[in-house]
Design goal:
With about 140 residues, the chain is α+β, with helices and mostly antiparallel strands. The protein is about 20% helix and about 40% strand. It has a single domain, classed as Roll (Thiol Ester Dehydrase, Chain A), CATH 3.10.129.10. It is built from two helices and six strands; from the N terminus they run βαβββββα. The radius of gyration is 16 Å and the shape is elongated.
């Protein structure tokens, strides 16, 4: 089953990432699980670009759902172009999407995925509304 990436989304970040030799599996293509690491790094860099740390304190964002659709195999050597988008922003959650392509063929999507992230009070171990400064940056 493929999950469709909505058209109604806003690009918020773009980065490149080298494909490492160790990212490949015995079939000589990037292992499916590694794409989740690529998306994780893109989210970390985007959050950092907003001026926030991913190191948890009393409150932070946590993933409650993640997916990836695979369209084209990629392998070493190469470099990925990863674009990050914000979709629906809720009271305490946000949908983040990533489109991945090889830098030399940016129009050919190799994989597309996303995650629903929730703002969480780590002391209470419960989701809570976005702080106003975070919400302003998401919108």
């Amino acid at each position: 089953m493929r999950i469709e990436i909505p058209d109604d989304k806003k690009q918020v970040h773009e980065m490149t990432m080298p494909i490492r030799w160790g990212d490949m599996d015995s079939y000589r293509h990037v292992n499916n699980a590694v794409y989740f690491r690529y998306m994780e790094q893109a989210r970390v860099e985007w959050i950092g670009s907003l001026g926030y740390s991913v190191s948890p304190d009393k409150e932070t964002v946590l993933i409650v759902n993640a997916f990836c659709n695979f369209y084209k195999q990629v392998n070493y050597p190469g470099e990925l172009l990863i674009k990050t988008y914000v979709g629906n922003v809720g009271k305490s959650s946000v949908d983040i999407f990533n489109l991945m392509a090889i830098v030399t063929e940016p129009e050919v999507i190799c994989a597309a995925g996303g995650a629903t992230m929730v703002w969480v009070d780590l002391i209470k171990n419960k989701s809570c509304p976005w702080p106003n400064d975070v919400l302003e940056k998401l919108r």
